[in-house]
Fold ATP-binding protein.
Amino acid sequence: MRNPFKFGTVVDGAFFTDREKELQTIGQLLESENHLVLISPRRFGKTSLVCKALLHINRPVVMINLQSVTTVTELAALLLKRIFKLYPFEKIKHAMAHFRFIPTFSVNPMTDGVDVAFQPGSDNNIVLEDVLMLIEKLGEKNKFVVVLDEFQEIIDLEKGLDKYLRSIMQLQHNVNYIFLGSQESMMEEIFEKKKSPFYHFGILMRLPKIPYDDFFRYLTERFAFIVPEQSEQIAKDILLFTQCHPYYTQQLAFQVWNILEQESQTVEVVNHAVDELTQLHDFDYERIWMAMNKTDRHILTILAQSATSPLDSKREMPTSTAFSALKRLSKQGYVIKNKKYEIDDPFFARWIFNRSL
Ligand SMILES: Nc1ncnc2c1ncn2[C@@H]1O[C@H](COP(=O)(O)OP(=O)(O)OP(=O)(O)O)[C@@H](O)[C@H]1O
Ligand SMILES: [Mg+2]
């Protein structure tokens, strides 16, 4: 049997578990005229969830990762390129009659896809507005879904773009927008701050980790194929280490499976896999660690030992210093706040812990 665990890319089918409630909520939302804002730390499963929700909806879907564009014109061109994947040019050219700047098209012989570009000097905002209005028009027959991943990048793309975008989007009726973001603080600034143009623009959903019972069942069922007697213990050990983080749980389970397949030894197998993976990343962790300042290292060491909270006043560091370090580390994605602050990557936590021994 092939390794039944998968990490790093979008998961679906047998690799996807739980999220029943979230799928239902997204389904209902897409039936309405509302938009969705989905926030979670990195690799919690936002993209997988949205892809699954959109799999059978029979509506035109366009998905853009804002990290992959550097200018507003590039964003407009990429949207247009995605539209051409859904509709043949001949069918929609009449709907583009309103375009104030004419894009150029070329067939990419490597991919057979169409490349789109706007002439330099085209007005950024107008170009984007024209493309969004094309989507609105095409959505008359069958409503569009536009997914904007890493939406917080919009703030750095161009000053005032958020205001402009919102002014166009609020007039559209034939599009559901789904905004995804993993920089929680920035997404909150955009959708939760009263003075932001996107204040309460969509329904906010925070994606949590996968609930313990579901993940436990998911792991046990699969390990039962290879070590029926120990599958429950292995699942328990894995989840104890990963604390149900979707990505790291799959990564560790993948490694454990590989070891079991090769050696079929089960004693301390999870610990063994943890050591292997921690060592595998040694070089990266070292580099990250060396680039950090002393305060951040100190905070991470406390979290890795997790005996007390770094905000504990008995520590030698002022609470305000600890707090700003935690905020900084959260922004960079090293620390996430669940009920308490924790290190996002459990292998990094183990690596830091090992150093402090
Ligand atoms: N529902 C799920 N069931 C099982 N594993 C999952 C699920 N969702 C996510 N994962 C695991 O987490 C990994 C990351 O998922 P995904 O890429 O969807 O997350 P993301 O939040 O979009 O990440 P990023 O922040 O990198 O964009 C997957 O490759 C998979 O290993
Ligand atoms: Mg993603």
In short: The first strand starts at residue 36 and ends at 39. The first helix runs from residue 20 to 30. Residues 212-280 form one domain.
